[in-house]
Amino acid sequence: MSAAPILRVEALSKRFRGLLAISDVSFAVEPGSITSVIGPNGAGKSTLFNLVTGYLAPTNGTVSFKERPITGLATNRIAELGVARAFQIARPFRDLSVAENVRIGALFGKAGARDVAATTANALALAGMAHLATEPASVLTVGQLRHLEVARAIATRADLLLADEPCAGLNPTETAAMIDVLRRIRASGVTVVLVEHDMPSVMEVSDRVLVLDAGRLIADGAPAEVSKNPQVIAAYLGTPD
Amino acid sequence: MNLVVQTLADGLVLGGIYALAAVGFSLIFGVLHVINLSHGILVLLGAYLALILSTSLRIDPLLTMPAVMAVLFVVGYAYQRLLIQRAVDRSPLGSMLLTFGVALMLQNTMIWVFSPDMKSITPGYALASFKLGAISFDAVRVSCLLASLVMLCCLAALLKFSALGRVIRATAQQTLAARLCGVNVRHVYALTFAVSAAFAGASGIVIGIILPFSPADEGTWTLNAFVVVVLGGVGSPAGALIGGLLLGMVSTLTAQYIGPSFPNVTMFLLLVLLLLVRPQGLLGNAFAPSR
Amino acid sequence: MTQKPAAFVAVILGCAVVLALAPLVLPPFYVRVGQLMLYSAGLAVAWTILGGFAGYASFGHAAFIGVGAFAAGLAEERLAGLPPALLLPIGMLVGGLACAILSAVVAYPILRLRGTFFAIAMLGVCHVCAELNNNIDALQGSLGLNFPAVAPAAWDPAVFFYELYLAAGVVVFLIAWQIQRSRFGAGLLSIREDEDTARMLGVPTERYKRIAFVASAVLTGLLGVIYAHSLGYITTDSVYRDDTNLSLIVYSLLGGMGTLFGPVIGAFTLVFITQVVLARLLDFHLFATGLLLVLLVLAAPGGVLGFVKSWRQRRRAAATAPAE
Q1: Exposed, middle or buried by CB within 10 Å (0-12, 13-18, 19+), for B208?
Q2: What is the CATH classification number for the domain harbouring A138?
Q3: Distance, first Cα to last Cα, chain A
Q4: Which of A76, B258, B272, C12 lies 20 to 30 Å (CA to CA) from residue C29?
Q5: Above 90 in pLDDT, residue C209?
Q6: Range of the domain at B11
Q7: Which residues in chain A have Cβ-Cβ distances shorter than 8 Å to C189?
Q8: Is residue A1 assigned to a domain?
Q9: For A146-184, how does the pLDDT look when each residue is reduced to its tens digit (9 = 90+)?
Q10: How far apart are CA C317 and CA C309, in angstroms?
Q11: How confident is the model at residue A10 (pLDDT cuts 50, 70, 90)?
């Protein structure tokens, strides 16, 4: 660990009635990295994102962003500090055009001085959406909507982007394009945390992989070592009896 | 002490009626996600039909129930297929305003046909009453309460055990999946609306026996239904019963102990309070998709 | 979005001057219709700051007309010795303040509700205010309240109130326009589209909703104060009106929900239809209004402006199709 972590999660737990969706999870994310969170369905990946962005309140534990505790802050306050999120199921503002969608992100998001027009244009270009700027969001394809989610999120000038399965349901060409966008975003200085199912793209793009199973963190390391971890293989394929 | 018990007994009777009057509204809300602002009109339609039938045929108003329910079943089916279906998939405001428009048109029509004056249905045993201890019950109220409870049980059984009930519940919980399984969703919506209208009509008969009514009352009955559903929860007869009893008790207790001129104040304070504490109502949404 | 602000203001003020001169040529009946049109348009625009821009359609804005009117009236009654020219501004100050306090207090619980629940809860707020106003003797709701004649002696009161409604309407319109083109307006728009996503993007949704609610309530209350003066005498029933509650939604729906001109178009159209076209068919009133609502929802769910927009799109599509 060289620089101070941009995101630190300590002993985080979330209980829904009887079910422990996240159980005592701790990790830290280095600035400028791409980290993937993987795990079988229902492992608690989306819940983890909901806890970090303040959409849900944790039962226990803390989340810190740039060494500042953000547990219990309102979602919009966390966004103002510089955390952005792209949803798996795209949630565009359907009555608005692509550019207007991204402009909302540029108008709000991280607090501070802003040049809205330039930020909007940059985000559109970075996400490869510039040619679609004037289209209404309601006519976009699933792949284009994912790019719009990402464009709107980075238009907030966030330092940390949480992307929830940006490649789910995309064909290989679209997946490659999305991976490319994520790399460019990282190159622009934004730290990226992904939830992803698509193992080849995870292995290709990530510096580090966290594996969740039934709410617990069962592995944490470089893609190559994690994929050899017997616990991870068991979680994905089931334990041979 | 007697006054308290008498007030509670009155509240019970009123609550049973509120519950029956609201259960159809609740069903439509739960299945179609439509706020039917013409619900009160359907209730009044039942009352006027019962008035006409019972006076012209000289029979007990409660006996007109099958005929009234049959008429409203057909009316409800056609209403949904011809008008509401066209607004269902648009914004919730659209269907709300559509039903409100229909309510205004029908209220106006009722004023032409039946005059704006108060009417009431008077069964033969209107003046009979009996005492249970120190509490007096009149026969009318007891028979109406019983009728309400029986009808609520019938609807609960219909939803739980009949094939129609199963299809309605399936459509409400997973509209897309139901469609994929070959369910004609529009037909089910219309049948749901028909059932809802039939029960609104049944409640209209009971209301007509207990309280005087006029075309201008439709708004009150729609609003009551809404309050009952918010209090009790969406979609189930049990939720309607709980919400109805709560509303009945609160309004009689308010009228008795705080003053008859503040019915809305307590009702809406209760409503807003409950919405804040438990937005799903006491029993929650009967059709909420299970996760 | 690309319109030049100065040009826009000039056009609006130009229209206002034309409308201001209209009473010189209009017969008295139409001056009264014009009053009602301008009053309704002002209310519709005030409503749309919350209902159209932020998507929180209130079904109880008559509460603020009533509270504003009664607060102003009670204050003016106590200051009866002052010259009438002072009473109206004082009344507006008190009425606006009362609405600001009421809406700021009510905002906390009620803005947690969404959609229909918010709409109906606002209806509840309206009924509760009306009932309290009617039953608390000091508020004189059932007894009624007299308002001083504030029109200068040289003016025909009908023309005076026409011009007053016009001035107030223009002010409300320009405020709404400034809101719509500001960052705040963009935030409200994102709340209407998807509140959770808006919050995720850093829009302070709770604060914005409250500000929009209070602004909408205060402007509605100020118009209510003018309305009460034009009536001269009010009771609870004359200001807390359910048909007002309904009309405010219908104006936006008829003209175009969420737009700035929609509510104005809707209010002018509906008032003209009910007051002029249907004036002789009083027995028909409910039926006609209902029929209008039904046709509106079925035929033009986007309102007049939405209808025009989709018609234009279709024409453009038809024009470009052969070229491809």
Answers
A1: buried
A2: 3.40.50.300
A3: 39
A4: C12
A5: yes
A6: 2-115+129-277
A7: 93, 96, 104
A8: no
A9: 999 999 999 999 999 999 888 888 888 888 899 999 999
A10: 12
A11: very high
Compute φ and ψ for C203, nearest 5 degrees.
-75, 125
Q: What is the CA radius of gyration of chain B?
A: 19
Q: Write out chain B residues lying below 8 Å of C297, CB-based.
A: 87, 90, 94-95, 97-98, 101
Q: Which helix (H) or strand (E) holds A186?
A: helix A172-187
**How many other C-beta atoms can be found within 10 angstroms of the C-beta atom of residue B211?**
15
pTM: 0.86
Task: Domain count for chain A, please give it.
Answer: 1
Query: For B154-174, what is the mean pLDDT?
Result: 88
The 8-class DSSP code of residue B160 comes to H
Give A38-84 pLDDT, tens digit per residue: 888 878 888 999 999 988 899 999 999 999 999 989 999 999 999 99
Instruction: Tell me how many domains chain B contains.
Output: 1
Residue A66 maps to a domain: yes
Rounded to 5°, the CA angle B191-B193-B198 comes to 95
- For C69-111, what is the HEC assignment? HHHHHHHHHHCCCCCHHHHHHHHHHHHHHHHHHHHHHHHHHHC
Do strands A60-65 and A68-69 pair parallel, antiparallel, or not at all (unpaired)? antiparallel
Scan for tokens 């179609």, then name that residue.
B32
How many C-alpha atoms does B126 have within 13 Å on its Cβ side?
11
Average pLDDT over residues B191-199: 95
pLDDT value of residue B90: 64
Helix C242-255 to helix C285-299 angle (10° resolution) is 30
Q: Residue holding tokens 């969001």?
A: A137
Model confidence band, residue C1 (pLDDT cutoffs 50, 70, 90): very low
Residue A174 structure tokens? 């679209």
Residues of B near C (Cβ–Cβ under 8 Å) read 35, 83, 86-87, 90-98, 100-109, 111-112, 219, 223, 226, 230, 259, 261-262, 264-265, 267-269, 271-272, 275-276, 279
Structure token pair of residue C315 = 């024409």
Average pLDDT over residues B74-86: 93
Angle at B176 between CA B175 and CA B181, to 5 degrees: 100
Residue C300 exposed, middle or buried by CB count within 10 Å (0-12, 13-18, 19+): middle
User: Distance from first CA to last CA of chain C, Å, rounded?
Assistant: 30
Q: Domain containing C312: what range?
A: 29-323
Number of domains in chain C: 1
Candidate from C121, C294, C297 with C-beta closest to B272: C121
Instruction: With respect to residue A226, please indicate whether it lies within any of the assigned structural domains.
Output: yes
- pLDDT tens per residue across span B222-269: 888 988 888 888 888 888 999 999 889 888 888 888 777 777 778 777
Q: Which CATH number goes with the domain that contains C63?
A: 1.10.3470
How far is residue C119's CA from residue C55's CA, in Å, rounded to a whole number?
11
* Domain extent at residue A93: 7-237
B289 in a structural domain = no
CATH classification of the domain holding B68: 1.10.3470
Q: Give backbone dihedrals phi and psi of A209, rounded to 5 degrees, phi first.
A: -130, 135
| CB contact (8 A) between residue B87 and residue C298 | yes
Structure tokens, A99:
């550019």
Token pair, residue A190, equals 């934004």
